[in-house]
Each structure stands twice: as structure tokens, then as C-alpha cells.
Amino acid sequence: MTWDFAEANPFSESTGSWEGMLEWVASALETLPAHPLGQARQVNAVEAVNGVPAPPLISTDPPYYDNVPYADLSDFFYVWLRRTLRDTYPDLFRTLLTPKAEELIADPFRQGGREEARRHFEEGMRRVFRNLRARAHPDYPLTLYYAFKQQEVEEDEEGGAEAVASTGWETFLQGLVEEGFQVVATWPMRTELQNRPRGQGSNALASSIVLVCRPRPEGAPRASRQEFLRALRAELPKALEDLTRGSIPPVDLAQSAIGPGMAVFSRYSAVVEPDGRPLSVREALALINQVLDEFLAEEEAELDAPSRFALAWYEQYGYGEGPFGDAETLAKAKNVAVSALEEGGILLARGGKVRLFRPEEYPEDWDPKADRRLSAWEAAHHLIRLLEREGEGPRPGSSPSFPRPGGGGPGSGLPPLPDCRAQGPRRGRPELQPPGQKLRPPGGGGGQGAGSGAGGAF
């Protein structure tokens, strides 16, 4: 952690002035209900729920696994507040620094290792949800705000198939489900300013995710893996149609649609594999993303995950820049990580922005045989680059044959490609043109995201 500070003139009209801070506080107070009298208490969520006598309505923002060292950050302010307010609030400022032993985060240095930190967080979240379920008001749902970004790319033992893992999300949801909560809805909300310090020059998430939960009924049935998949395929299409009729942008649609999938999974007391082993949240999320992909990607379902991401991103931004948070959300739904897409050479992620590479930006010395993350999108853009530069004539020293879907063609130097031809034009997607014509977005090449240098080529 690097300590830093900013010196602002408190008498100016800029950010950080007394007038600006008072205006923000006043604006917030104007929107709050005038009654009843509110109270704030500092208590441990594992043991209490803010000390209120009646069953409370609970809405909370839990800690984000290992992303934020809250106590360490608090020390920066705590030492100064303690000097001025120790006599006024002796209970709050009884220690020299903020307490850290009971803090519910995953800190490998403090807790003795990565696995010990994961266990500390998972067990702590389970105890919190057990306490919340016992004390929450039975007539109102529990709402949880979560804006966790972490993703890890996992490969099988042979380095082949990849899957995106998110330890923070999965340990959080595992504790929620195991303590008897059922997820009934998931919605992304724009809860942060884009110009906040955390979002400046960094790849921070654009949305918070709101999980709406209720206690799972006693005697909830068990389900097999196949029954779970059948329920997903039967119920998700209708839920997705309802979401598409709303004002949710495409990059948030996939993340929002995870809600109905988790609602199916969490309404069972357990989902079991054929060998009797319970299905974990990690495995359930992979199955949910698989079924979501079948609906959202239809004719692209046979394409690789990077190509499906690129097509969906192109719909929204073309070759222009978009927020990293949107890319993270979309990539998670496509079961791929943004870092893997960048390593695969199809996009650039810098300073909180993401954009797809244009055809002319792809390297001329590309060797598909040495490419560990070969995708149909990348191969197509190399073909576009060559077609734009050299036309349809044969390359020197090669036979006059142009690669076709399903094969590279003699002398092309390219591996066989899958037949990626669409079954027909789709609104918002680039349409495949006959050989000799440039690939352009629907409606011409002059719209938003049209390429430059390549004549607006796809």
C-alpha cells in the first residue's frame, strides 16, 4: 500500500472545498426520510444486527474478499480522529489502531497463507449469514450489494480448456446458500461515479450487483445435475426475454441473467452429481453461464469464448473504447477473463478502458501454429488484413486459392477454420459479404465504431 494525500484549498469552489463537501451532505440528507429517528452502532455482524430490538429489514454491503484492506485504510484516518474524539467516544477509540483480528477479509499475510485466508473468509461469511437469517424480518428480503472483480483463469492438467473462476464470488455465494438463503433476483446498479478516485486510471468495475435473497423453505427438494440443467433450460429463456425488454445494456444483460440461474440452484436443498457428490457454487455458475451462452449466443454457440465475447462487444462499442467494468461483466458471462483476451491479442485493456484491435493493428508476423490462444475472431481479422493489403490475388510462391470456411486452402499458411457463417443477418451484427467486398457493420461503414485506415472494415 502506498500512502498518499492531496492538498486542496478549503475556501475554493473546487472538489475538496468546505462548500463542496457541505453541498454533497445536504443533497444526500434531502433525499433521506425525515423519520423515524435513525441510529448508528458499531457491532460485529457475526454476533448482532445493529442492536435493534425488533426484526430488522437488512440491506448490507459485505467485504470484498481480498480486494480492500479496510482496517489498514481506516488507520490513516483513525489516528487523527482518535486525537480529537477519544474523550467524546471512548468506546470507539479505546485502541491505538483499528482492530484487525476479527476483520472479515481474506488476508494471506495476516491469516497465515492463501488457503487459511480463504477458509477464514468462507467460515466468517457463513456465520454472518446464519446470524442474519435468524434475526431478519420474515416479511422482507435481504439485499446484498456486491461489486467484486477478481477473476482467475484455470486450465486443465494438459493446458487445454479454460474456465473463469472467481474465488470471492464463489465463497460468498457458497456461504449464502449453505446457510439456507435462496437468491430470487440479481440486478446490476450504477452505484459509483465514473470520476471517483478508485476508477481513475484503473480497471475498476462499473456496476454493483444487488442480490435479493429470502430464506429457503424448509423441506426444499433435492435435484440431480440433469434435473438442474433441465430446469435452467426451461426457465431461463422467459427470464431473459423479460430482461431484454428492460433498459439493461447488453454488457449488463448477461450479468443480470445470472440471477434467475442462481434462483434455480438455490431453491434446492442440494444439487447432486451422479456419484452423490453435491454440486458446488463454482460448478453451478459454470453450468449457468453455459445455458446463458446457449440462449444469448445462438448461432455463435459453436464459436470459441473469445470470439463470442468480441462479437458481443462489437455490437455495443465497435472498435471504440468501452469501460473495463463492462468488459469484465461480459467476459465473466462468456466464461473467459479479460486478461486472457488481451494475451490472445484481440484487445487492449489500459487505464480503465478496453477496445478491440482493428484489422490493420494485427501483427504481420503472426504464426497460427505458435498461437496458444487462437480464436476465430483473430484468424478472421488476419484474413481481413491480408485482403485489404494484398487483394484477392495469390501471394508470391503460393497457389491461387483463397481460404474458405472449414479449411485453410493450399498454400494459405492458415489452419483449417470452423464454418462460422451465420444462418442469416442478425440485427446489430456485422453481415458476411460475398468475396471481394469489405465486411462492414449493418447500415454502412460510417457509423459509430467504423474502422479507420481499413475503410471501416469489420
Key attributes of the depicted protein:
458 residues; alpha+beta; three-stranded antiparallel sheet; 11 strands
Secondary structure layout plus pairing:
Blueprint: H1 18-31, E1 59-60, H2 70-85, H3 108-111, H4 114-135, E2 142-146, E3 152-155, E4 162-165, H5 167-178, E5 181-189, E6 208-215, E7 222-224, H6 225-244, H7 250-266, E8 270-272, H8 281-297, H9 305-317, E9 322-323, H10 324-333, H11 338-343, E10 347-350, E11 353-356, H12 376-390
Parallel strand pairs: 1-2, 7-8
Antiparallel strand pairs: 2-6, 3-4, 5-6, 9-11, 10-11
Helix pairs in contact: 4-5, 6-7, 6-8, 7-8, 7-10
Q: Average pLDDT value?
A: 75
What general outline do the C-alpha atoms trace? Answer: globular
Largest sheet: 4 strands, mixed
Strand order of the largest sheet: 1-2-6-5
What does this structure look like?
- This protein has 458 residues and is an alpha+beta fold.
- The protein is built from twelve helices and eleven strands.
- The protein has helices spanning 18-31, 70-85, 108-111, 114-135, 167-178, 225-244, 250-266, 281-297, 305-317, 324-333, 338-343, 376-390, and strands at residues 59-60, 142-146, 152-155, 162-165, 181-189, 208-215, 222-224, 270-272, 322-323, 347-350, 353-356.
- Strands 1-2-6-5 form a four-stranded mixed sheet. A three-stranded antiparallel sheet has the order 9-11-10.
- Strand 10 (347-350) and strand 11 form a beta hairpin.
- Helix 4 runs parallel beside helix 5, helix 6 (225-244) runs antiparallel to helix 7 (250-266) and helix 6 packs across helix 8.
